[in-house]
Amino acid sequence: MADGSRANSKDTLGGDAVAMTTPSNAPPDAVVTSPAGTIQPHPAFPSRIVAPRDVHVYLPPGYEREISRRFPVLYLQDGQNVFETGDMGAGWRVNETADALIEAGRIEPFIVVAVSNTKARRDEYTPTAIEWKVANGPISKGGGKANLYGRFLIEELKPFIDRTYRTRPDAASTAIGGASLGGLVSVWLALQLPNVFGSVLAVSPTVWWDNSVLLMKIAALPGPAPVRIWVDIGTLEGENAVSGARGLRDALAAKGWKRGSDFEYVEQEGGRHDEVSWGSRVPGMLTFLYGTPPKP
């Protein structure tokens, strides 16, 4: 990214930097083939802003054949669980679901950038710092580095993806999403940067963080941002989680988002706070983002 763009991003999000380990334009490793699309690994993707992390890129069926075509992009957090079983449980199998829906003509082809988390997950995925006391223990403090993580996405990762793959880089073609804290940070960054991210998947989002600071942010907006938002929750995720998701739904509606066009809300009966439940909702998420009109 040009120096001017980098400076503008810092003005918006702020934060400190860490050392880069390897060149960000290093060639990707070998391709791993999924049933129809392909998955391109970029291990230990370097950064001057945050710690290195693995990134995997799903390229849809037809990417290699349609050499003049450009594709929308979905950035997903907790990337080690997006495609296969990861260290946090069963995978979402987004690639397999995307392959099937694309083959059936139900969605347009798109690229997925799965961004793995690190040991700093809680800090990077939360917009504010909070304190809490462990039972019979000291007071701890953490969180508050979402804007720093956002700088990594928009200053380093997205420019690399846009120059390496045939993307449509505009905001209307760029979505961000995640589950739990990953859903929280995705909504937060999209509201901060609607000129970068035009759609969000807020899957079982941690709305309760810091006394529901996300809802306060939405209430303070002058009107609905130009961002389409998917919100979902499982009914077995706990009272706080369900009430938080409903609160997000109501806050969006109160601010002027229109359900069915600007945002969608889904409660999954029996859904739990786990990858199996989230994976089962992927067809609806992808149809919301990339659905094609039914053929006559």
Task: Please characterize this protein's 3D structure.
The protein is of the alpha/beta class and 296 residues long. The chain has a single domain, classed as 3-Layer(aba) Sandwich (Rossmann fold). It has nine helices and eleven strands. It has helices at 3-13, 94-103, 121-124, 146-164, 181-192, 209-219, 239-255, 275-280, 282-290; strands at 32-33, 38-45, 53-59, 73-76, 111-115, 129-133, 139-143, 174-179, 199-203, 228-234, 263-268. The strands form two sheets. It has a nine-stranded mixed β-sheet with strand order 1-2-3-5-4-8-9-10-11, sandwiched between helices. Strand 10, helix 7 and strand 11 (263-268) form a beta-alpha-beta unit. Helix 1 (3-13) packs antiparallel against helix 4 and helix 5 (181-192) packs parallel to helix 6. The longest helix is centred in the middle third of the chain and has 19 residues, at 146-164.
Largest beta sheet: strand ordering: 1-2-3-5-4-8-9-10-11
Low-confidence stretches: 1-11, 15-34
What is the rounded distance between the termini?
A: 44 Å
Domains, number: 1
The percent range for strand residues is: 15-25%
Number of helices: 9
Largest beta-sheet characterization? 9 strands, mixed
CATH class wording: Alpha Beta
List how many beta strands DSSP finds: 11
Specify the CATH architecture: 3-Layer(aba) Sandwich
Helical fraction: 25-40%
Instruction: Give the integer mean of the pLDDT values.
Output: 88
Order of helices and strands: HEEEEHEHEEHEHEHEHEHH
Overall 3D geometry? globular
Structural class: alpha/beta
